[in-house]
Amino acid sequence: MLTPAQNPELRGQDPAVATLVAAARSGRLHHGWLLCGKPGIGKATLAYRFARWLLAGGQSDDLRLEPSNPIFRRVAAGAHADLKVLERRVNEKTKRLQGEIVIDTIREVGDFLHLTAGEGGWRVVLVDEAETLNRNAANAMLKLLEDPPPRSIWLLVCNAPGRLPITVRSRCRRLDLSLLPDAVVDDLVAQNLPTLTPADRTRLVAIAEGSIGRALMLAGANGGALADHVVEALAAPVPPFRAAAIADAVAKAEDGFGIFMDLLRSALAAELRLRARDAAPMPPSLAGRAALWQELARTEAMVDGLTLDPRAAILTVLHQLQAP
Q1: Burial class (CB in 10 A: 0-12, 13-18, 19+), 166
Q2: Are the C-beta atoms of 58 and 83 separated by less than 8 Å?
Q3: Does residue 37 share a domain with residue 172?
Q4: What is the mean pLDDT of residues 163-184?
Q5: Phi/psi class of residue 133: alpha, beta or left (left: φ > 0; alpha: ψ in -120 to 50)?
């Protein structure tokens, strides 16, 4: 599968594309953009698409640049002198991906922004997963955002803008991307997974929630089976032998616990929205369900922090779901 830097196609985000094109052609392009939305809907792909378009002189009406274009090829290879990409890095000591973007990564941008653009145009800073900036990194970035050099632009790709300091958010123009229509997700799944049966593809689209990234992740992690376990857990009381079987299956699956909890919280949220529409004031049973939704996040954090065994956590969750 192509990375966002390599991907020439963007589906389902025409309004966002039109907004960026209009802003660029107005002559008053804001120096900071916060591209927000659910993971897997094309935010990073749009950011790279806009970056390439600016670096190439901004000719097309849809931000498209052909893959044969030298600028496209250099951006895809991470070799364009006027594009700086900031993201979580691999820790040289542990050889593991850092959990946050650190201040040393942001410090690399200072010199970059104050150099003359190598090709006489824009200098673009693209921050992927901007919500992972730690406090020191965010503060360092804020100083750079407050005094931008001419013809420089920041593109912040963000899944959770609420995690960014308000001082950073206030210096950027926010652009929210839409969830993808099911027809677009279905088409993209068919392109990326041509051997998938129509029934399995339909199931993936149903649980993808408008995200092609989520659909492909679930396909690679047997998400359909995990979704079946979620349906079983929510539909009726789960007898002990079935609870044990579900807990075993989830714990053994690669990334099974995280995916199961994500699917469960999504299904629970959908249930709450549906029931809340016809319930005013909120009955105790619905309030208890809402409290459970929050409790699931705490349970997941405990497992991530290695203080709770995933199998034991699933058994606890299945027991909590049976409460009236």
Answers
A1: exposed
A2: no
A3: yes
A4: 96
A5: beta
